[in-house]
Design a protein that fits this description.
Helix content is about 80%, strand content about 0%. The chain has about 270 residues and is mostly helical. It has one domain: ABC transporter involved in vitamin B12 uptake, BtuC, CATH 1.10.3470. Helix 1 packs across helix 8 and helix 8 crosses helix 11. The N and C termini lie far apart (about 40 Å).
């Protein structure tokens, strides 16, 4: 298996899953703590509106998906604040609107648009050097913002009302994190696909929460679980010749089940 490291596409994929695992652990811990897991699905599906519009107008689909992702994520925050909508209700509106627009624009686009399958299922082996550069820049920005606003992020994640009363910059942190979530989704979706993206934003964090309950340990441990599953799935897929994204998700599910069993055995032994 190690001979595959000599191939640029495989080494790029390996570096890519490292960046994705770190970003997904940071973003996933935030959205799960805020009970906003659905926003990742909402923004992901809203991206299809941008993809469809990009193909229809002959503009870079990824760029348009990014515009739609940021716009939809900010829209969720604005609707929740100004229209007295619950965040899950606002996400449902964005989700439906994005999918509808995507289907409409794809239907109106002349010819067949096969690239949409890549956004649905992804292929981590298609990571290129520019993709890695974009991920490296985003990872640096994300970690820098977390280091700068870590205490505020933790307080806002657990109790937004208390943070508002305490005079913390709730709106600034919330909007910035929402935009970072959207950018992370856009950078990841074409490479990992919706299935793997949703799994990486939730399963490793849920697994880490079985053993830890503090924000930082959960984030670190979930990144480790994500890395273990991603690297293992990537190497094993070269042997058994199956899609690595599906294999990575299955390994993540297996780690979650194993962690639950270990936790149950520990509780029983006490």
């Amino acid at each position: 298996m190690l001979r595959y490291l000599d191939y640029a596409f495989f080494s790029n994929a390996l570096i890519g899953v490292v960046f994705i695992s770190i970003c997904a652990a940071v973003i996933g811990t935030y959205i799960i703590t805020r009970r906003m897991v659905a926003i990742s699905g909402g923004v992901t599906h809203a991206c299809f509106g941008g993809l469809g519009l990009g193909y229809y107008m002959g503009i870079d689909p990824v760029l348009m998906a990014g515009v739609f992702a940021v716009g939809s994520s900010v829209g969720v925050e604005m609707m929740a604040r100004r229209m007295n909508l619950r965040e899950d209700s606002a996400i449902a509106v964005i989700w439906a609107l994005g999918m509808a627009l995507g289907v409409l624009f794809v239907f109106m686009t002349p010819g067949y648009v096969p690239e949409l399958n890549a956004f649905l299922f992804g292929n981590i082996l298609t990571v290129t050097a520019p993709d890695l550069q974009a991920f490296a820049i985003f990872t640096f920005v994300l970690l820098a913002f977390f280091a700068w606003q870590y205490r505020n992020i933790v307080v806002i994640s657990f109790d937004r009302d208390f943070a508002t009363v305490a005079g913390l910059p709730v709106r600034f942190v919330s909007y910035t994190m929402t935009v970072l979530v959207a950018v992370c989704i856009v950078l990841t979706i074409r490479l990992a696909g919706i299935m793997m993206l949703m799994s990486m934003l939730s399963l490793p964090i849920l697994t880490a929460e079985i053993f830890h309950h503090r924000f930082l340990p959960v984030m670190i441990v979930s990144a480790c679980f994500s890395l273990i599953a991603s690297v293992t799935g990537l190497f094993v897929s070269t042997v058994v010749d199956v899609p690595c994204s599906a294999l990575i998700v299955l390994i993540m599910v297996g780690l979650f089940v194993a962690a639950k069993l270990v936790s149950a055995l520990r509780s029983h032994s006490k």
